[in-house]
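Researcher: Next entry in the queue.
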Amino acid sequence: MMSKEGNKESLGGGNIHLSAPRNFGEMTEKELRYLVALLVAGQTEKQIHVKCFIRFTGIKTIMNVDDIYYFVKPKMKGFFKLTSEQVSFFASEFKFLTSRYIGITPFKRIGFYAHPADKLLRDISFAKYFEAENHYQAYIFRKEEKYLVKLLAVLYSAPEKYMLRHATADDLTMCLLWFMGIKEHFARKFKYLFGKVQGNEDEEDGEPIPPNMYEIITNQVRMLTEGDITKNKQVLSSPTWDALTELDNKCREAKENNKQ
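Model: Structure for this entry, 260 residues:
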């Protein structure tokens, strides 16, 4: 299996060691930018897996004859060859690039001064988290780029106008993948709160109905304040992880009480 430590592929009388990231947490910003550029360019999943296998392992194709591909590797004398079947096998190790987004470290800067929040939102308020979730849901259901711009502005603590001037298509795509990864992580971390996919799964005229974010926010805040509206401001200004942890505990307790 391809790994950070390296994968060995037997080539004639010897071995060649190939190493590459196994997940987003092991990827550099340069590697993430390469992936995002491929997505923006409209590459297929298979093309992305093969191109990232070649780029991330540092090998280069010099030629191919029928089903055989010849590669060179830095600091290695001569060349080595792989069949198309072997290339496909190694490329399959990169399926996580188009399916699981946990662990993404966002680009360090957008434009001149905009820097991201903690990659798992440990440093933003509960109110900011709700704002980000609202923009994300709006984009998912409406597919309008302006909502990604708004999401990026929240997560980078910058004015929306600034993002309109400086954010590229690559920045917006990265932001979408990053937030998808955050939601995947939260679903695992806060399993009672996010045990089921949030949102209305009913359909109207064959179309999914977007979740009522106002209702979701109101209900979650009410759970934390226990109906005391004088505590609303305090709850919304609390750290996201503190609020989600408490909500998760309340959901767990409610589930246990229901069983009893």
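Model: Residues 1-13, 197-202 have pLDDT under 50 and may be disordered.
Researcher: Noted, moving on.
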